[in-house]
Amino acid sequence: MEMECWVSMPKVELHAHLNGSVRNSTLLEFAKELGEKGIIVFSDVEHVVLKDDRSLTEVFKLFDLIHILTTDHATVTRITKEVVEDFAAENVVYLELRTTPKRNDSRGMTKRSYLEAVVEGLRRVDAVDIDFASTGVVLENKKKSCYMNNECDGISRKKIYVRLLLSIDRRETLEAAMETVKLALEMKDVGVVGIDLSGNPRVGEWTTFLPALKFAREQGLHVTLHCGEVPNQEEIHRMLDFLPERIGHACCLEEDAWRKLEMSKIPVEICLTSNIRTNTISSIDVHHFADLYNKKHPLVLCTDDSGVFSTSLSKEYAIAAAAFGIGKKDLFQLARNAVELSFAGEKVVRELKELFDLVGKSLA
Ligand code: 6MZ
């Protein structure tokens, strides 16, 4: 099927890391600037940024590099704006964007000021209309908005809903994680809806963060965990016992953990290209997506790090269609079902479903 059909379909993105979703061209532009200032050697960085196949270990080395390139408020604002506009351009109608608030004393950056820079990026989005605040603030032109330009009358614009998840990095201390959760609570009115636990799965113990995750949940924040990116069965079991509202990846589950996942019905954020590129799954035909999909387990297709893995949500749909033989109508239904898995709340879920139903009618 033509790529265009996956691009034009409305989609929901629930697992995208901000710094992993930066365009290569933007990263290279930053690298050039830092190279000219003598802070880094441009050619070394260029080689790493443009490399295509990476192990999981190499991916985390690349994130350290990306973080060097993106550490100041103006840069964080710019990448946020670009990432949202890129997702909107391929008709992602709801984006739950996650990022790790970072403190950087040398730049006068606190976790709070980092997050404020992200929110400023949302405010600067101008290529499309954006709804990013849970209180319902919509920044839009006076023009009517709709999800696809080509279906509208030329005056209308695309619209994207954006909500934020704050990530706790497994390298952090419990104290830093608590700071992130408290920040999330303070920033609920600019669309922060939950907490994610991510970072190098071979680093740290997830139990370190359990008090912060429990606190988040008690305070009404939604929680999603990266679970089973490496085969640590003890951790996988304990994570599933915690009953997070969603988990990311779920790649390395042995039989009893797999059964536990199926029984629990915890929705899974599936990142096909990421899993294949990092060799977490050996090839697409043995990917657990097929089993979950056939068993009607709640799941959603996601990009993870569209910049780092040179992918897009449309490509992920195209890959699923080709690898598992799923037709457009069924993948449209999968995208529509994913609306229910968002952390955005009833009103947004209702509005998104209406939008999907409107488009669905035109497909029928
Ligand atoms: C685990 C990942 C990840 O937060 O700086 N991250 N954590 N597994 C993955 N699979 C490949 N991909 C990204 O975005 C980058 C950060 O997201 C997490 C890592 O902590 C990475 O440093 P932010 O915007």
From TrEMBL:
Gene3D superfamilies: Metal-dependent hydrolases. It holds the Pfam family A_deaminase. Keywords: Hydrolase, Metal-binding, Nucleotide metabolism, Zinc. Its cofactor is Zn(2+). Signal peptide: none annotated. Belongs to the metallo-dependent hydrolases superfamily. Adenosine and AMP deaminases family. PANTHER family: ADENOSINE DEAMINASE, ADENOSINE DEAMINASE-LIKE PROTEIN. This is Adenosine deaminase domain-containing protein.
